[in-house]
Amino acid sequence: MVKHTATSVVTIERFIIEQERMFPDATGELSGILYDMALVGKMIANKVRSAGLADILGATSDTNVQGEVQQKLDVIANEIVVKAFDHGGRLCAMASEEEEDIIHIPEGFRPGKYVLLFDPLDGSSNIDVNVPVGTIFSVFRKITRGSHGEMEDLLQPGRRQVAAGYILYGSSTMMVYTTGQGAHGFTLDPSIGEFLLSHPNIRIPANARYLSVNDAYEQDWPEPTRALMRRYRGLDGERKALNVRYVGSLVADFHRNLLGGGVFCYPANTKSPNGKLRLLYEANPLAFIAEQAGGAACDGYGSILDVQPTELHQRTPLYLGSKDEVELVSQFPLPKFVAPGIQERRGASRAGAPASTPVSAAPAV
Ligand code: FBP
Q1: What is the spatial distance between Cα 39 and Cα 150, in angstroms, rounded to a whole number?
Q2: How many A from CA of 168 to the centre of ligand 1?
């Protein structure tokens, strides 16, 4: 693999081909999915950039499967992704944050051997106030027989992802992805409409600077979570405080911490005993990127990537970022989470592992 620097003029297409060459048996289908995702990124960036001018700001009158009011751009972004992928012959099924059920490949189009899960526009409640938003994606190989994709193909543990990434629509548009060969960042040059390699082999600084958490939920956190946040803030005298930075847009908060060093936390609380963020198309893909960049991700009971999913839109507590900060979570073992009427939560089931898999040395709860 050619060793590129941030100053090499390398398009994402050329980089994808060079990575593909490392796999003699590669058929080019996964490369094709990454090309199409880069195209999707350019199309959505175009919509987001002109949102204020094109009467596509604001909400629709619909709510999505999460019970959230759908923003007009959520629907537009979702359509762009589905239309970019439903006829290419590389996917056998998709799943989106904006759609309740599995998205099948329309009759008449040849199904492929991969599945795609995505959040078309993460942080969309921030669009109207011009705060960065993002698209998040996760790719798995089909595991069921037959040509069409099934729920089983979508409900695979994150450790089986063959590719994952996000596109950030911020001061510049960036695409960051991994296929298990490191995490790499590309910046869109609008003057030529090309994603150019700008951040090869991203390494998340071990020495964290930032804490990203919405502490408006503090009163709903169990005591160990409060103690953990006091530690991050240097309030228990054990360490220097991390600087708090919270945009309220997962991709933007994660991206800052990926480049600058830090930890993003969305703990479980009595109102959301399973946390808020979705395992399959928010936590899993960012956890894969974080691990490929030398970081980590857990749900407070074990590694996110070892969770065996049971539902398409299942939620998970999330601690994500610099390895040492994520591993600190294990020193504050979370209690079983019981909320009125909510099923006891002792940590999600993990692929092939006992009830709780240590992030590094997490004591079993
Ligand atoms: P969606 O917009 O995709 O539903 O994302 C959820 C999200 O907006 C994340 O981007 C963000 O990290 C989190 O919710 C913010 O939640 P809260 O407002 O509770 O802090």
Answers
A1: 26
A2: 14
